[in-house]
Amino acid sequence: MSVRTLRVGDRALLVELAGGAETEAFHAELLRRRAAGALPGVREIVPAARTVLLDGVDEPGRLAAELPRWESGPLHARVEAVVEVPVRYDGPDLTEVAALWGVSVEEAVRVHTATEFRVAFCGFAPGFGYLTGLDERYEVPRRATPRTAVPAGSVALAGPYTGVYPRSSPGGWQLIGTTDVVLWDTGREPAALLAPGTRVRFTAVGGPTGEVGRVPVGVPTAEVGYAAEGGR
Amino acid sequence: MTDRAVAVVRAGALTTVQDLGRAGYAHLGVPRSGALDPGAVRLLNRLVGSAEEAAVLETTVDGCALRPRCAVTVAVGGAPCPVRVDGRPAAWGTAVRVLAGSLLEVGAAVRGLRSYVAFGGGLAVDPVLGSRSTDLLSGLGPAPLAEGAVLPLGADTAARGSVDAPPWPGPPDELVLRVRLGPRDDWFTAAALRAFATRAYRVSPASNRIGLRLEGPALERARPGELASEGMVLGAVQVPPDGRPVVFLADHPTTGGYPVVAVVREADLGAAAQAVPGTPVRFIPVR
């Protein structure tokens, strides 16, 4: 397994992997070891695009020396069910996305609903998952000008990722649809419907006449916008 | 009457409920949050006989005013400020008994930025994901204080007396932040790293609970292109495209796409909570 380990301050390690699939496999291996009690003294495991951050590490030097010797584990076949997310494909950018893909709107919806996604990592906001699975020919750029308010439940695309906004927030992703599923519920375990590793499939419901946006949930906006989603 | 609660008479510029934070959910995009000056919180909670992790109030610049509905032991610390009970001066930095219906006034900070108010029994607002902290980035936890709000208090166990003369470090005239370079110091030129380690920065007025924004020499990148989003830690010194470093504080995002040139030692961040805009800042690379 090709890994590069970087020290992050006094208590954390950033493990760099070759690509997205390797990162997911390494993350799964970390979770497996933690579940088996073989990863003591690590408080947070944060997967991202091509790295996994280990934070709150008791002995970072020792763990950093140990990591390259780990056997490369295959990405374990997951046994849990696929989370289905019903979507009204009525987003304001759907036509533009279809044009970028060079297909009809109907075909764009078919591609999106035919894809099995997996949550590679979370970030930007609680419960916002970065879903991979779309073929790379369907990558789209972020919008040149971000929207100041994207409604909660918006299904969106940027780069290689699909995401669903858990609550109303500013955002620059291309909006292709809307869902009513509850993405984030602190009374649920885990609170995020789309936690890292979760398999996801989108299904089309209703017609294009459904309501596009809903009333934003009543949460204060961030003091400043450090958290531009993606940042890739 | 067993109305263990405190009413908000004056909310102040930004007063939030804080404890020691919300650990363990960074992988779901949840910031750690918690008091920016956790040392002050631990000390004040000991003074009023509460558990160290009990929830307190964190004020910003101009304090707040409260009317407890029951007799309660309180202690005000962090940034030095005048404290009054029913108009009479009361002690700062030690436990004070406030009677039911009295007005507790936490004045504007004389030095520093953030004062803390601890209560016997702690604030008993509902915890979210194991913490009562207000997280301003993602909107978790109780809303910032508003006039007329009523906050419940926990049962006062009154196991007081563990501290009598606590040492209070004053707010800094100069903020000295020890850092470990990396993980992305190789994204910057040698000249930029030299400037980072030797030049003085100043705290920008745009700083908040998410980050300490700095004015000073822009750090020039050695390589173009973009970094893929990666996990961020408390104290990370992130450098956005304008080259001005931002030190991530408690409400920082859990992932980010700008390179982190260095990470500040956690022990040095409490002082950052009290650094007023314009305070000189020096980064001292260690190890």
Automatic annotation (TrEMBL), chain A:
Pfam families: CT_C_D. Keywords: ATP-binding, Hydrolase, Nucleotide-binding. It comes from Streptomyces venezuelae. Residues 3-194 form the Carboxyltransferase domain. This is Allophanate hydrolase. One of its GO terms (molecular function) is hydrolase activity.
TrEMBL record, chain B:
GO terms for molecular function: ATP binding; hydrolase activity. Keywords: ATP-binding, Hydrolase, Nucleotide-binding. The keyword Nuclease does not apply. Residues 27-287 form the Carboxyltransferase domain. SUPFAM superfamilies: Cyclophilin-like. It comes from Streptomyces venezuelae. The keyword Hydrolase applies. This is Allophanate hydrolase.
